[in-house]
Amino acid sequence: MENIVLIIHLILALLLIGAVLLQRSEGGALGMGGGGGGGGGGVMSGRSAATALQKATWGLAVAFIITSLILTIFATQSVQDGSVVDTLPPLETNGEAPALPAIPALPQIDGTLTAPITPDAAGGDEPAAAPADDDTPALPPAQ
User: What is the pLDDT of residues 51-73, one digit of tens each?
Assistant: First the structure.
């Protein structure tokens, strides 16, 4: 029964889309177009008589809402108590927490800077060269 209502619901959705797309556009937003039956055609104009296509659209919309409600009732009747998580098998643990991945240690800094952060105060656009230590390689000249 649920499949039959679902098929009817899908057919109604397609027919409703087709009926809406076939209707003549009134142009503009908020009904400002000139297609009304009251002469001037504005927001306060008279209302035109409903065409057969508009009546069919209303009928399809009402039928679509009814099938939506019926499908909702079917869905709530087949709901089981509990959760999907309850159906999962329990995890096998040996009582210990999983180990965290190893993080590589950062190199130790002795508190002194080997190269200045800002350019040399004496001027120029090139940063000052690092002091030459036995352990620290010299920086190549800037090109």
Answer: 899 999 999 999 999 999 999 99
* Domain boundaries defined on the chain: 1-24+52-77
Cα–Cα distance for residue pair 9/14, rounded to 1 Å: 9
- The pair phi, psi for residue 52, each rounded to 5°, is -65, -35
Mean pLDDT across the chain: 73
8 Å CB contact between 73 and 28 = no
- Residues 6+ positions from 70 with CB-CB distance below 8 Å: 5
**pTM here?**
0.46
d(CA 48, CA 121): 82
Q: Using the CB atoms, write b or e for 26-47: b if 16+ within 10 Å.
A: eeeeeeeeeebeeeebeeebee
